[in-house]
Amino acid sequence: MNEERLFTLRNPWFVWSVGGTVAIAVVAILIGFVWLPSASSAFGDLSLWARICGAAGVPSSWYSGNEKSQVPSDVVVLPPAGANHPLADSIGRGATLANQHCSMCHGVLATVQVTAPPLAGQYADAIYKELRDFQSGQRPSAVMQEIIAGRSDQDLHDLAAYYASLPLAPAAEKTRAGEGPDPIAVRLVMQGDPQRNIAPCAACHGQLDRKGAAPWLGGLSAAYLSAQLQAFASGARHNDINEQMRHVARQMTPEEMDAVSRYYAAMQ
User: Fold this and answer.
1) Does the pTM of the predicted model rise above 0.85?
2) pLDDT category, 63, cuts 50, 70, 90?
3) For the chain, which domains are there?
């Protein structure tokens, strides 16, 4: 049989070999990207497309129709040398500003609030970045933008230094006696979910590692944390560097958001 006759649809061996190869590939794709993810509890109630993307390790939603195009937040703050030991004058100025403008929502001496995060003991660079983002409009807030609009860069540094100098606020919520942390939350916080492109929370926010300007989440109220995760997922909040939080939040279910929020709310 010459080569011309070998690669032709008239040759049954050629047809069966090509058809068999295609069939095996289709079955392998269905098993690897649909059936196995469906059998895994990690994918829960996700749609077919979300399961396929999760198995492939890519986000299922690159763009939300409700999300306007935004300029990425350009305030990347690296802790300067000596940031852990700010000058007493800076802390004093920050205390004055905080008592005049911040205590009504964030509490006197930064006691725990439900709708506004406690700032006591928070990383100075994280506070500074958020203040800059409020001021520039990268993080929209009618209340915060009004308060912070006329403040100098030194004022923002002073506020950050003051709050960072305080001891950590107590946990916003307490776990019931004999009740341990939610295993779903522990897995997401400490291990993440690589199949859905979810990095461990602790890799950026502390416990395992910390990335510059990522805030400490322990002690924040569950209501506040859940609201922020939902805002990142919808695109309403978009001041995360390189869309890191938006990519993560879009892959999380509402139940997972609540579980992670409760986990951090009970942490000191």
Assistant:
1) no
2) very low
3) 20-62 (no CATH), 88-165 (1.10.760.10), 183-265 (1.10.760.10)
